[in-house]
Every structure is written in structure tokens, then in C-alpha cells.
User: Which sequence fits this backbone?
């Protein structure tokens, strides 16, 4: 494991509620404001709950195969999903109505990654080596705004920089920052390996990648400084900054480790215990000190509390 500060005891999660899906959960995400929580599963099932009570709001049907990814619109009560059927779908979270279907134009490719721009005007989706960006208006038919030049290998993660800073996409060899309309990347973030997941801090100061080799790499976006944290028990499948960027949460297998970014030195990671089984995904609440985790074999979603850090545990046995 990464070095854990001796002065920080491991935090134990305490389950206080539960909701179920019928199959393995692939992705979990909070709505803007955090009042709702949505998840998608390998059966294609997509569901929305009230965060405080975990009472169901609606269940959406549309993906005939696995729903791989899900992302909420940053300002509206709607979200996008993508899956093995090779399309991205946009849904109303209030009614469960399907607003639009966006084709990637690559037969046999899975839509594995989605990301809304911070202002909600654009939705990026990747399938294989292709990354497309759509213009999304609340009252108009979505239109294709741009297509990033084909990557050398499969796109492994996508995220947007704040304040119109562009979009970051990764594949084997690192990540690259792109601006819509430009044929070449604005900046590379080289890494000698395979990033699996990306996250940008709310200020845009840091870019974090979780990697296949069991490590987390942290880049400064305003200079060439970077840090490397290795020693995880397996590939790092999820990295997320909390609402104010003070903590970076990282997941590898059954391990959930947070890093304090206020005085970051590459040491002092804090281990969270109590999640039953392997963790598949995490999400940070946009307003509260809450983290949602997904995993385990029973496709369960449960609330949990951890000392001074309340946690929504979407894991299971």
C-alpha cells in the first residue's frame, strides 16, 4: 500500500441503509446538488434514488446490454449513459424519459467513458479509439461538435478542465489536453504505462491518473511537477477529488485510500475500512462530506458513516 501516516488511524465504515440493483453495478454518480444518486449495471439496468433515504425515484430501460458508464448533467436533472450497445443515451431523471440517442459510428465498440463539460454545453463520449463531442441544448436536438483525432490505443478515461480549459483524454502512454477545433493536443501528460481513470481538481491545479500498474500519478497542470504513489494491491480503477479539492480518493481492489491535498507530500494516505468486497467505483457528493462506493457481489447500495466523514457505501458482500 502507499505509505499511511501513523498519526491517522484507518477509518471504518458503518452501514446505515441499503438499496439494490439486480446485477453488478458499474458506475455511481451524484446529481448536481447531491439530492439524488444514480447507478447503472451490467444487465443494462439504470436506476435513480433519493440520496437521503435511498427511496427509488425511477428506473430507466433502454440499454439491451451492459450499461458501462453514467454521468449527470452539471446543471439539469438529466444524465447520460453509455454501454455495450455502442450508443450514449440522455435521460430525464424526473420521468425516466429517454431524450436522445447518440451513435458513436463504430460498430462493435462499447461506449465506456462519458464526461459533461463544466457548463453543460458539451458531452464527450469515447468508444475504442474514438472520442466524440456533442453540443447539447435543453431544447434542441444534439449535434456533433467535434471529433478528437483517433488515439493510438483505446481511450481509457475522459475528463474536462474547469473554466473552458479543454478536455483531457488518456490512453497507453499518458493523457493529452485538447481544445475543441484544434488538430493537435495543447499539452501532453506523459506516463510510461496505462492510465485507467482520470480526475481534475476543482481548481484545475492537479490532474490525477489511476494506473494499471497499481499506482496513482499526480500532475501539476501549471508546470511540469508531478508525483508518483505506488504500492496499491492491484490496478487503480477510480480516482476522485472531493467537492473542494481537499482530498483525493483512490480505489484499488478492496482498498479505498484518501490523500490530503491541502499539504500534499506523497505520504499520509488514509485507509478506509469496512467496504465488503472489491470496490468498482466511487463518487464524491458535491455538497457534503460523503463518498459513494460501488462493489461486491450482491449489487447492493448501502449508506454508511465513518467517524467524522460520512460515507455512502454502494458496496455489498
Assistant:
Amino acid at each position: 500500500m502507499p505509505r499511511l501516516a501513523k498519526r491517522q488511524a484507518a477509518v471504518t465504515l458503518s452501514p446505515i441503509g441499503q438499496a439494490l440493483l439486480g446485477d453488478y453495478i458499474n458506475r455511481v454518480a451524484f446529481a448536481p446538488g447531491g439530492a439524488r444518486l444514480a447507478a447503472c449495471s451490467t444487465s443494462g439496468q439504470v436506476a435513480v434514488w433519493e440520496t437521503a433515504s435511498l427511496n427509488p425515484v425511477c428506473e430507466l430501460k433502454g440499454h439491451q446490454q451492459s450499461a458501462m458508464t453514467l454521468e449527470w448533467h452539471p446543471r439539469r436533472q438529466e444524465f447520460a449513459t453509455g454501454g455495450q450497445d455502442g450508443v450514449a443515451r440522455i435521460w430525464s431523471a424526473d420521468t425516466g424519459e429517454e431524450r436522445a440517442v447518440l451513435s458513436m459510428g463504430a460498430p462493435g465498440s462499447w461506449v465506456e467513458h462519458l464526461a459533461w463539460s463544466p457548463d453543460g454545453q458539451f458531452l464527450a463520449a469515447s468508444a475504442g479509439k474514438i472520442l466524440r463531442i456533442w453540443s447539447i441544448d435543453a431544447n434542441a436536438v444534439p449535434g456533433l461538435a467535434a471529433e478528437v483525432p483517433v488515439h493510438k490505443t483505446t481511450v481509457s478515461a475522459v475528463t474536462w478542465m474547469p473554466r473552458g480549459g479543454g478536455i483531457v483524454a488518456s490512453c497507453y502512454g499518458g493523457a493529452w489536453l485538447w481544445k475543441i477545433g484544434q488538430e493537435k493536443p495543447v499539452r501532453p501528460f506523459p506516463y510510461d504505462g496505462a492510465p485507467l481513470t482520470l480526475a481534475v481538481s476543482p481548481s484545475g491545479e492537479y490532474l490525477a491518473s489511476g494506473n494499471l500498474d497499481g499506482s496513482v500519478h499526480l500532475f501539476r497542470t501549471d508546470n511540469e511537477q508531478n508525483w508518483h504513489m505506488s504500492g496499491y494491491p492491484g490496478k487503480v480503477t477510480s480516482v476522485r477529488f472531493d467537492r473542494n479539492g481537499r482530498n483525493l480518493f483512490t480505489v484499488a481492489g478492496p482498498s479505498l485510500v484518501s490523500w490530503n491535498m491541502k499539504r500534499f507530500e506523497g505520504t499520509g494516505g488514509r485507509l478506509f475500512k469496512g467496504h465488503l468486497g472489491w470496490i468498482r467505483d466511487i463518487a464524491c457528493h458535491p455538497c457534503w462530506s460523503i463518498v459513494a462506493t460501488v462493489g461486491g457481489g450482491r449489487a447492493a447500495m448501502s449508506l454508511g458513516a465513518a467517524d467524522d466523514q460520512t460515507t455512502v457505501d454502494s458496496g455489498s458482500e
Remarks:
- Residues 297-310 have pLDDT under 50 and may be disordered.
- Residues 172 and 242 are 26 Å apart (CA to CA).
- The radius of gyration is 18 Å.
- Residues 11-314 form a domain with the Methylamine Dehydrogenase; Chain H fold (CATH 2.130.10.10).
